Amino acid sequence: MLYNIVLMRQIEQINKVHTRYRREIRVEITKTKNKYKSSTSMIIMLEEWIKQLSIALDKFVHGEQLTEDERIAVASIIYATIKYLDNFDKCNDELKEIEEKCKKKLEEVQKELTDLHKQLEEKEEEVDEKLKTLDNLVKIIESNPRLLPKN
To answer: Where are the coiled-coil regions (predicted)?
Structure first.
C-alpha cells in the first residue's frame, strides 16, 4: 500500500513537470511564431539554428564543454544519423547498382550509335555513287541531244 502511494506521488510529480514543460514549449512556440512571422525571417531563424548546430558539432568534435542545449542538439544529430545509417547504406548500394546499369545502357547506346554512323556513311557513299552516275547521264544527254525523246 505504501509502495502504491509513493508511485502515485511520483506519477503526480511527473505529470506536473510534464505539464510545466508543455506550457513552456507552447510559450516558446508562440514567442517564436510572433518573432518570425514572415518567411524571410523564418529562413533567417533556420540559418541561425543551423549555425548553432554547426558550432555545437565543432565544440563536440574538439572535445570542448557543451551547454545543455548543445548536448541535446549533438545527441539528436547523432541519433538521427545512426537511425538512418542503414537506409543511407541501402541507398548507396542501390545508387551503385543503378549507376552500373546506366553505364551498361550507355555502352549499348554508344555501340548502336556507332553502328548507325557506319550505316549512314555507307548510305552516303551509295547516294554519292548514284549522284555521280546521274551526273554522268545528264552530261551524256546534254552532249548528245539526239538521245532525248522527241516529245
So the answer is: 88-140
Grid cell listed for 40? 524571410
| Separation in Å, CA 112 to CA 24, 107, 123 | 67, 9, 16
Domain ranges, ordered by start, for the chain: 67-151
Letter for the amino acid at 102? C
Placement of cell 574538439 in the chain? 62
Average pLDDT value over all residues in the chain: 79
63: region left, alpha or beta (phi > 0 left; psi from -120 to 50 alpha): left
Distance CA 87, CA 85 (A): 5
pLDDT at 126 over 60: yes
How many residues does the structure list for the chain?
Answer: 151
